[in-house]
Amino acid sequence: MSGPTTTYGTWYNFKGHELTVAATVAAAVGDYDDDYDLDAIEDDYRDAIQKALPGSVGLAGEDFIGPYYEKDQDFDGYPEGEFGGLDITAIIESVDLMAIVERHEQWTIDQVADHLGYKTATRNATARKKLSSWGVKATAHKPHPDSGRVQARYNAREVENAHKSRPGQGRRSDREEPDGQR
Question: What DSSP letter does each residue of 44-59 carry, written as one string?
């Protein structure tokens, strides 16, 4: 941004019921906050909003900052508000927060073992070994809600992707029929 800037309003001005970006993220996950990486969600949400805004407008903390002079407010191609000017509410709503939330779901080793279909008494140890062989590392360590013991959390999408792309799941090029027919 060049030239003088001004505040276009705060997060609360555009979201109404949540004071901060973090509060919006917390409301999106509800009572399942232990199942998600809230900091990563907030970072990605802020980045997505920043990308959706015109280059001369930014989200700084909880404030939207942009050019002061009207001649510097080139917002062609961006949503316009009821009384003209940039419609920041529409821009915020254009960002799919729930898609960002889903990318940051975290599973316990029990959930990983369930996903992988392990049913034996050593299923958690087997799941840990499998994750290690795939290079999937814990993304967080949180206390268990009942015992208080620290337990590792794994990014659910990373586990799913590793499971889908494990050896033996791809196309077998060595089994091609002559002339590329199967």
Answer: HHHHHHHHHS-TT-EE
Q: Are 54 and 75 in contact (CB under 8 A)?
A: yes
Residue 60: which of 128, 133, 11, 94 has the closest Cα? Answer: 11
Give the long-range contacts of residues 16-19, CB within 8 A, separation 24 or more. 19/62
The residue type of 171 is R
Strand ranges (E), 43-144 = 58-60, 63-67, 106-107, 140-143
Residue range 141-168, pLDDT digits in tens: 988 888 889 999 999 999 999 999 887 7
Check pLDDT > 90 for residue 28. Answer: yes
* Cα–Cα distance, 180 to 182 (Å, whole number): 7
In this prediction the pTM is: 0.79
User: What are the start-end ranges of the E strands in the chain?
Assistant: 5-10, 58-60, 63-67, 106-107, 140-143, 150-155
Which residues, including other chains, have CB under 8 Å from residue 62's CB and lie 6 or more apart?
10, 11, 12, 19, 20, 21
CB atoms within 10 A of CB 137: 11
